[in-house]
Amino acid sequence: MNATEIMQQWQRTLQPLLPQAHPYQLATVAAFSFGLAQARHCQLSRVALAVPGATRPASSERRWRRFLANERIDALHWASALTTHLLAGWGQRELLFLLDETPLGNRLRVIKVALAYRHRALPLLWRCYTFNAPPEPQPQMIEQLLNRLSECLPAGVGVTLLADRGLCYPHLMDVCRALGWHFVFRAQGQTRVCLADGRRCALQELARHPGSRFYGRGQAFKKAGWRAVNVVAVWPKGVPEAWLLVTDHEPNTRCCHLYRRRMWHEEAFRDEKSQGLQWQTSRVYDPAHAQRFRLMLSGCCWGWL
Questions:
Q1: Domain assignment present for 111
Q2: From the centroid of its chain, how far is CA 2?
Q3: Do 196 and 216 form a contact (C-beta atoms < 8 A)?
């Protein structure tokens, strides 16, 4: 099968998944995401050169820029449709979602929920916004993404959400519990906890040196209002600092094994940026345009899958 046939097959695959899309738009998505995969680079001029067919590269580039600027295309809606299809075949296996934020230079930020899959993070839903000027508080943006993602899940599937300490909000725990999801969050060292034996301390006091560990139950986040949590404080030897985790899973070593997979998101970011597709070279800085560009970037990942 040659490159043209592969791209056409990818377009036929997308058609039933995005029935609301015009055939011209589907052809654009297929060519754009296929070109990204072929070029392994996000600079539009390079992507255009990697797309097979008689269309001149300059024409393809203009076509894609029109797509990115098209306000009628709701990238989050399209991503939701693709995510629903992607997760439909997951069966009853537990889903492990990774929540993280990444900068694109000093202009954009992207908050993204991804599926942990084979040592990588498969992007599902995201929100792009201007650096230091989010359209609404970050916890609210995350809540909206998670509620949207919950609508894409097959019935009866279990979910665990992983998040780093920068996103360890008490409100996010409330959202997970409301959705019936499990969570494993890395917390700040100064986070106050009240343990089951009545002791009150900062999380960092539970693992003061390499080799120390603590597993227990209690409450956390005094300032925001105590939340019942299980606590895992582990400082593995050879690691520069302790892992301080709050979770609703049983407090044991499995929580550490789960949280270790959050690094798969870091690997995916490197694939998208410095060690892979060079997303930072796209020069797409408008949040709405970047939202649609991420659809192409994610389509590239979905196509590989």
A1: no
A2: 32
A3: yes
Q: Which two tokens stand for residue 287?
A: 């949040």
Neighbours of 28 (CB within 10 A): 22
- Count of Cβ atoms closer than 10 Å to residue 293 Cβ: 25
Task: Report whether 172 contacts 142 (CB < 8 A).
Answer: yes
- Are residues 299 and 251 part of one domain? no
| Tens-digit pLDDT profile for residues 103-131 | 887 889 999 999 998 888 889 999 999 98
Backbone angles phi, psi at 2, to 5 degrees: -85, 175
Domain assignment of residue 133, yes or no: no
Q: What angle do CA 22, 112, 130 make, to 5 degrees?
A: 85
Segment of 19-28, 44-53, 120-129 carrying the highest mean pLDDT: 120-129
C-alpha to C-alpha distance for 4 and 34, rounded to whole angstroms: 10
- List, for residues 181-216, the tens digit of each pLDDT value: 999 999 999 999 999 999 999 999 999 999 999 999
Paired sense of beta strands 182-186 and 159-163, if any: parallel
Predicted model pTM = 0.91
- Say if 66 falls within a structural domain: yes
**Residue 191, number of CB atoms within 10 A of its CB:** 21
For 199, the domain range is 165-260
Alpha-carbon distance of 282 to 45, in angstroms, equals 9
In terms of Cα–Cα distance, which of 286, 304, 303, 305 is closest to 75? 286
Contact 203, 193 (CB under 8 A): yes
Please state the domain count of the chain: 2
Q: Alpha helices of the chain — where are they, by DSSP H? A: 3-17, 23-39, 44-50, 57-68, 75-88, 138-150, 170-179, 253-260, 263-272, 287-304
